[in-house]
Amino acid sequence: MTIRFGTDGWRAVISDGFTFENVRRVAQAVADWTNEARGQAQPTLVVGYDTRFLSDRYAHEVAEVLAGNGIRVCLTKSDVPTPALSFAVKHLGASGGIMITASHNPPRYNGIKVKTATGG
Prior knowledge:
120 residues; alpha/beta; 3 helices; five-stranded mixed beta sheet; single chain
């Protein structure tokens, strides 16, 4: 399956395109990009999630992939709104963030938003 990113990330129907396998694929791509961009310093990424079905489980999978690639992970303790994740990235001086959310899409969707060090 081809994963296509839009303006602010990737969205797909849960259990169709948005699967644990594909979430891990995207997390690995973000880890590769982060480690390449940061060089030798250990980067930090903030990972958050919303209240959609399985969002917390997807976030844990993302965190495990990132940590397995030597990235320090700050995983939220509970669901958070996307702007709070963006704030945390800036406040913590993190290299970026990943938010598990489908935003305004219908409930059968979930998604991944990738944030840069600016929180945007």
